[in-house]
Amino acid sequence: MQTFEKIWKKYHLKLINFVNKRVNDASLSEDIVQDIMIKVSNKLHTLESPEKIRGWVYQIARNTISDYYRSRKLYEVLPGNIISPEVDKIKQAREEVSACLGVLIDNLPADYREAIMLSEIESLTQKEVALKQNISLSGAKSRIQRGRALLKNMLIECCTFEMDRQENIIDYQPKSDCDCLKV
Question: What are the contacts of 158-166 at 24+ separation with CB within 8 A?
Fold first, then answer.
């Protein structure tokens, strides 16, 4: 069995180079290597095959580097002078657009209106919509999909939307000929 001192002498500088290639910061590399060596010291008694010490040490190194990157904050603190949109405004915009959907759904052709009402408002599955409308499953899927597309087009004709990264509405501006949304 190798002693920790022998492992330190043999792998310390090699590990610093190994880690530095992955984090590109000399002082940080030293810190990470210290963590690696602590883990090696604490787990040395669990090593079953001393001939596999090199692979074992480098696996600990790779895992420690991964842990470092996982724990790192991947965002910057925004300056205090940036004003975030008020949540109440976003909630209000979504509620107003939701209310408008009722008017737009009423303007859909009857087959699409019924399919949308059943699937989106009553939360029925597409199979249940097919049974209720006495059509095939693929027919129900088509009606729902076309109804959604018609609603989307009606909304786009009515308003200009501001969306976040997840495509959620955060604000909107009605176009001049929009009847269902009034600011």
Answer: 158/100, 158/104, 159/97, 161/97
